[in-house]
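User: Sequence in, structure out. Go.
Assistant: Echoing your sequence, followed by the structure tokens.
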Amino acid sequence: MTNIIVGVVSHPRNLHDSKTLVEAISHANGNREINKPIKQAVCDRGYVGVKTVLGADIILPKKALKRDNRYQRDKKRKLCKRRAAIEPIIGHLKSDFRLSRNLLKGQIGDEINLLMAACAWNLKKWMVLYQALLFWLKKLTSNMGFWLKLRFYRMKPNLEKHSF
């Protein structure tokens, strides 16, 4: 399953992007296995100036170098396109999951609102997957019923040949 939210962080005031990266990566590392910390973080241009954070290399979108071959250019482009998938998720959280306006009080209310929106997003993803699974199981069992009826029809004894 893709595009699930693995970690959210709420800040008490509006900070520059480069100042929020340490907390975000530490929170995401806390949700991963101990032996597998994040090695690469693909960020937007707001994180300019930061090269590594908590052992993770920060990759920023930039023009391809002349010495890069086609494979290296395509690899960099693919990483940055994947990063671009995050922005629509944030937009959906703001519009569909009521993240644009917070009615809960204080910093704790901000954190609760953010966490509930992220949980609702992930729950929606799981429900869509579950619904697709049920659809295919229903389709499979409806076809299976045809074959079972055909099998039992063949096994039914012919009573006209027997005289009682």
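User: And one key feature?
Assistant: Helices lie at 17-30, 70-83, 86-96, 106-155.
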